[in-house]
Write a structure and sequence with these properties.
Helix content is 46%, strand content 14%. The radius of gyration is 20 Å and the shape is globular. Strands 3-2-1-4-5-6-7 form a seven-stranded parallel sheet, sandwiched between helices. A six-stranded parallel sheet has the order 10-9-8-11-12-13, with helices on both faces. It has 375 residues and is α/β, with parallel strands linked by helices. It has 16 helices and 13 strands. The structure holds uridine-diphosphate-N-acetylglucosamine. Uridine-diphosphate-N-acetylglucosamine binds next to helix 1, helix 5 and helix 11.
């Protein structure tokens, strides 16, 4: 039976791509079947990223789409179980912390199939974040937990998870970053392609991404953030890659027009190679994403994270990341500090070396041999 490798949403793809490649190199010991739940489906959120990452087309697509958390999670579960019946499953491998991650882990655990979680043990300690709930529960269900930073092991121990099940391998997302950087699309080319004058970026620019429900689902939070961005854009041109959730909300709140401002360049969600090109040359990145905190640390680009907490503390302790919270004044002060003094320098965290997926493949091949379950 194959290892069922599950992706659902954009941040999963860059984690899975190097894993699929590393497993293929071990074939047939790590034969896998790529399952896409369909949580993300827009071309901008989906197909383009698959192409950028050289991910093979999914073997199975569950076509779940958008819905409330309960419905989306339940629908993934309903549609994933028959895949196990049809193809069998030596193990189920899930990455990250999206709803699809938890849903498939839960189905597998109930079927007594080994669950492997890549990017285990990260904690924001903020249960208002849907991803935090997904992380805690997926780790409880997992038989084998691969971690990106050593702090994850303390978090797992605190939750009573057997330390023998957790293995520090480094960061597969940084594997993708290193593998793709040579193909990154320069920001100027991207702007030209969008029919814009690349000259606006010549004096430096910032990159902005914003999509976390806690930041964009309420007008009284997102409104002041947009006003702060308008202020910042007067000093440093900002390229904003707008997530559909954010666009929809701003439209609903009648705030979309506020993004039309001097120095503000609003683009649809970008491909992976476009984002890498944008970020690698940016003066700074402003974000509420999880993965971008790590990517900017690997790139050595200063990052201001628009959140009160992070599940990726190493990016603050060793990398270029600073938490500024959601207060627009604090955000503007952070920007001011970078513009005046240059940003945090930081260093590359341990094992963020582009070879994490290879370590997973080597370890997993041995582990599966030892842990094959009688059925
Ligand atoms: C999901 C993940 C989040 C991740 C983010 C990256 C969960 C709980 N959240 O959030 O961790 O950082 O993906 O993008 O799993 N939509 C589209 N087209 C799409 C997908 C979504 O238009 O292809 C719109 C829909 O209006 C949808 C909304 O975006 O209702 C939210 O999508 P959803 O998948 O529920 O969560 P994200 O906010 O994308």
């Amino acid at each position: 039976a194959p290892i069922l490798c599950v992706v659902g949403a954009r941040p999963n793809y860059m984690k899975m791509a190097p894993i699929i490649r590393a497993f293929a190199a071990h074939d047939p010991a790590l034969r896998c079947l790529l399952v896409h739940t369909g949580q993300h489906y827009d071309s901008a959120m989906n197909d383009r990223l698959f192409a950028d990452l050289d991910l093979p087309a999914p073997d199975v697509n569950l076509g779940v789409g958008s819905a409330s958390h309960a419905v989306q999670t339940a629908e993934v579960m309903r549609r994933f179980e028959p895949v196990i019946d049809e193809h069998g499953a030596r193990a189920v491998l899930v990455v990250g912390d999206v709803n699809s991650t938890l849903a498939c882990a839960l189905v597998a655990a109930k079927r007594n199939i080994p669950v492997i979680h890549v990017e285990a043990g990260l904690r924001s300690y903020d249960r208002r974040m849907p991803e935090e709930i997904n992380r805690v529960l997926t780790d409880q269900l997992a038989d084998l937990l691969y971690t990106t930073e050593r702090s994850a092991h303390d978090n797992l121990a605190r939750e009573g998870i057997d330390p023998a099940r957790a293995v520090f391998v480094g960061n597969v997302m940084i594997d993708s970053l290193f593998a793709s950087l040579p193909r990154a699309v320069p920001a100027e080319a991207l702007l030209r392609g969008a029919g814009l004058d690349p000259q606006v970026l010549a004096g430096g620019y910032g990159v902005v991404t914003l999509h976390r429900p806690s930041n964009v689902d309420r007008a009284e939070v997102v409104g002041p953030l947009v006003e702060a961005l308008r202020e910042i854009a007067r000093r440093l041109p900002l390229v904003l890659a707008l997530h559909p959730r954010t666009r929809n909300n701003l439209e609903r709140f009648g705030l979309l027009g506020r993004l039309d401002a001097p120095g503000m360049i609003v683009l649809p969600p970008q491909g992976y190679l476009e984002m890498l090109g944008l970020m690698s040359r940016a003066v700074m990145v402003l974000t509420d994403s999880g993965g971008i905190q790590e990517e900017t640390t690997a790139l050595g680009v200063p990052c201001l994270t628009i959140r009160e907490n992070t599940e990726r503390p190493i990016t603050v302790e060793q990398g270029t990341n600073t938490l500024v919270g959601i207060d627009p004044q604090a955000l503007m002060a952070g920007v001011d500090d970078i513009l005046r003094h240059g940003g945090k320098r930081g260093r590359a965290p341990e094992l963020w070396d582009g070879r994490a997926a290879g370590r997973i493949a080597a370890h997993l091949a041995g582990w599966l041999d030892q842990h094959e379950r009688p059925r």
